[in-house]
Every structure is written in C-alpha cells, then in structure tokens.
Amino acid sequence: MQMQSKTIKDAYKHYKAHVENPVSQELYEDICKEFNIKLFDLILTGYEFDMGSNMGTISIARIERSPTTLTVDWNETKKYKQELIEQGVKLYDSTTGEELPEWLKGADYLS
Q: Which of 19, 50, 58, 77 has the highest CB neighbour number within 10 Å of its CB?
C-alpha cells in the first residue's frame, strides 16, 4: 500500500476549492492549530474524541503506577546479555526453543 502525506496546506487547497467564500490561508491555519491545541488539551484531561465517519476515537488511558512495581531497564538488560554472550553462556533462542533464558533457570514456578 502506498502512503500519501497530507499537510495543512493540502487541506486548505481542498477547502478553498469546495467553499464559495474561503477565509485566507493564514486564518485557516490559525483555526486548525487552535483546534488541535484545544483538542489535545481535552484528550490529555481524560476526554475521548470521536473522529466521525467510522474512523474511530482518540483517547488516553491513564494507568496508575505503583512505586513498588519494577520496570525493565532495557539498557542494563542489553548490557547483561552482552556480558553473558562474552562469558559463553548459551542464551534462549526463541526460534528453536533450545535453552531457557538465564533469568528463568531455577525459578520456583517452573518446578
């Protein structure tokens, strides 16, 4: 599928071709920018925007995080993986499923 990029200038050309008394391009762009800013503010405060024409909605789901829940530090994980490779440790291969990940070895829930 070929993708086409559309800009506010393209939208103005379409608008101007289909409206009897169009506003200036500068005013049109200001209106669009102001609309987008207000829309983003509403979405960020919990509202949902319905784009119409069965195109779907835009919203943000806020998820409360617990300071006791750990997250993955991918940079440290990559460094540790490289250390294991340099030590000659055979790591898990998802395509063959030959070896368990190093961090799973000895896990209580596997027995």
A: 58
Instruction: Count Cα atoms within 13 angstroms, Cβ side, for 10.
Output: 4
Q: Which residue has the tokens 């499923």?
A: 97
Under 8 Å between Cβ of 10 and 16:
no
Comparing CA positions, the residue from 21, 3, 2, 22 lying closest to residue 11 is 22
CA dist 73 and 80 (Å) reads 11
Burial bucket for residue 15 (CB in 10 Å: 0-12, 13-18, 19+): middle
Which tokens hold the place of 29?
Answer: 């762009």
- State which amino acid sits at residue 50: D
- Residue whose entry in the numeric block shows the structure tokens 């000659």: 88
Q: Are 100 and 92 in contact (CB under 8 A)?
A: yes
